[in-house]
Design goal:
homodimer; Aspartate Aminotransferase, domain 2; Aspartate Aminotransferase, domain 1; seven-stranded mixed beta sheet
Chain lengths: ~350, ~350
Amino acid sequence: MKYNFGAGPCILPQEVFKQAAQAVLEFDHTGLSILEISHRTPEFEAVVAETERLVRTLLNVPEGYSVIFLQGGASLQFSMVPMNLLGDGKKAAYTDTGVWANKAIKEGKLFGEINVIASSKDANYTFIPKDYEVPHDAAYFHCTSNNTIYGTEMHQFPKSPVPVVCDMSSDIFSREVNVADFGLIYAGAQKNMGPAGVTLVIVKDEILGKIDRKIPSMLDYKIHIEGESMYNTPPVFSIYVSMLNLKWLKAKGGVPAIAQENLAKARALYAEIDRNPLFKGTCAVEDRSNMNICFVMENPELEKDFLKFAEDRDIIGIKGHRSVGGFRASMYNALPISSVHFLVDTMQEFAEKHA
Amino acid sequence: MKYNFGAGPCILPQEVFKQAAQAVLEFDHTGLSILEISHRTPEFEAVVAETERLVRTLLNVPEGYSVIFLQGGASLQFSMVPMNLLGDGKKAAYTDTGVWANKAIKEGKLFGEINVIASSKDANYTFIPKDYEVPHDAAYFHCTSNNTIYGTEMHQFPKSPVPVVCDMSSDIFSREVNVADFGLIYAGAQKNMGPAGVTLVIVKDEILGKIDRKIPSMLDYKIHIEGESMYNTPPVFSIYVSMLNLKWLKAKGGVPAIAQENLAKARALYAEIDRNPLFKGTCAVEDRSNMNICFVMENPELEKDFLKFAEDRDIIGIKGHRSVGGFRASMYNALPISSVHFLVDTMQEFAEKHA
């Protein structure tokens, strides 16, 4: 048993692993593995329908929004969003809050004018910009709710006169959001939804179909909506495991309950980072992420030692991204608070050793 | 235990299911599920490298070709192929041999001029056209090696003065092909490679990078080649199970050995279709597929009865596609010949009952 603080693909609940392994052997008393069933069977159609229902329930998705499951991760959404929403000669507003936001901007530029209305790039993305206004003439406003690499999170979203498009890959299902405030939400599954290989898109139907561009079928949201996520063969197993995981979340009390737990987990670790003289946080306190907690050591020469000290205790996945250095503890929904306490204890032990 | 003749996602070897289920519980003595490991770990990088090596070995992929694993299935390839290979104002030659070929043509038209140089559409795709020449001025020639819905297969490929692009989704790894004859081969995994969720592309490097169009990163073959299939988070589990399945194939003697088995399986069923007065094949004998065997009944009123008769014997997935009717028995690599014999016996029993 490891303490898995990896940034993603990441920890999922142990009971989900057990149920998924069972379904690989035999799915739902069908006499077949989940890996050999047709996506056109009533049994699998029920899985897709149930997964959609869980998304709608857990996030209180209002009427007028479609929920679809695609492939290609957030990276493909970086292109699909402008392809579907940004008409030729139109402009869109983006905030640049990290590597992934930056990639979204880069892909957007292939389709129209991208105005970066706020950026924390010059400060190595250590904070979330707040002092900006979303222009009325943008086709949409794009933001990234949580910046995995830098450990910052948007705790509030700006008022916007145009549809808000948000990459929620690394914090969806971790806290309450008001879906009605968004035009389109997308998320690669591999943090709090399920295993890698499926992408969630929640889109307000009325923002689609307003541009003239001819869109390849597989990149057209409307086609996937009409096909009910089965325009082509979907990633069967990834959707199935997402269903198991969202069921687990629902049984735990849903998003409000997990948000409380996530807050408690984050507070416990940030308290130690702020208290322990060997460690310090890397970003603005008010913008700290509850999902990815980045920290470094006052004495960088100790970082290699601490990494080994932690790994010897089966704590894995805490090496920071190369653009920040130090450490990153990712604390997604399935990470138990006991793992956080264990990491805190380890930091304290290490500090005592080096007192 | 079922006799799974489904068209895809389809049967894979039982031992692959067992190994995959085990890895969902614990992957390779890591203390972690395959569903919670980072794609950037050395352990998973080794999986991708080994899967690529298996593809190269099993298909004798020559030097100068890249092997990559993508998402989105053949359906996304219908767009990626022209996006990467068909310059503005250029034309490409396609054959129309079924529903999927037709979709490829439709998507191609968004990017340039598509010349359909041969079609069997007017004959409900019951044969493979052979009487055509691939024009010298086409950017590439596109064909579909096996037509799942209609049960036809290209047993020979035409000489082509331009790169041949082939959708091999439903017969790759089932028979020997000379990869050097092709510019690009693509295949959704969910027949003979692995579970749904990953797409194989084998491309001759020198045909890429020759057009001016700006291509979104996720749709650019060169970017995925440079990223060694890890430009973004790959479909970890689908790649892992593909590796297990290709290992199984290699241990069986590779493609030449399985091709012999597939031929024996197909001959056994076609022999019964041709012998049994109740049944008849639906397509030209010389173009019959060894993967998907389509047949109807002389008396269509008996079809419902036969379907039930077969299902009562745990034979599943044999209902024909609505565009052909009757029956389709898909006999992918993992289907044992004993299942074919059982289907043949069932057809004979049914015939005796209705003599």
